[in-house]
Specification:
The protein is mainly β and 118 residues long. The protein contains no helices and eleven strands.
Length: 118
């Protein structure tokens, strides 16, 4: 069974870059037909899809975040990362990494709280 675990700082200052890593175990991020995804949930709001990196390495981003978002991967470590630049307090959220295949999110990380504050 695939397991995902987010890691990264819980506090980021405004204007800085938020960086999170998702470590995947129990399966390879290069397995065909899967999308490795970042999703966030601001306090009191719903889930927001931020972007994905496909097993091929192609990336896809939310139009509203595209200018500030970069998703990359390290296949040797079976990890993928999120970088969100120029953060503001509105980027405060619980950040999740997830595996999507056949239209379904079949595996999720436990989520990590990131607060943007000076």
């Amino acid at each position: 069974q695939v397991q995902l675990q987010e890691s990264g700082p819980g506090l980021v200052k405004p204007s800085q870059t938020l960086s999170l890593t998702c470590t995947v175990s129990g399966g390879s991020i290069t397995t065909n037909s899967y999308y490795w995804t970042w999703i966030r949930q601001p306090p009191g709001k719903g889930l927001e899809w931020m972007g994905s990196i496909a097993s091929s390495g192609s990336t896809y981003y939310s139009p509203s975040l595209k200018s500030r978002t970069a998703i990359s991967r390290d296949t040797s470590k079976n990890q993928f990362t999120l970088q969100l630049s120029s953060v503001t307090p509105e980027d405060t959220a619980v950040y999740y990494c997830a595996k999507r295949g056949a239209g379904l999110y079949s595996s999720w990380g436990q989520g990590t709280q990131v607060t943007v504050s000076s």
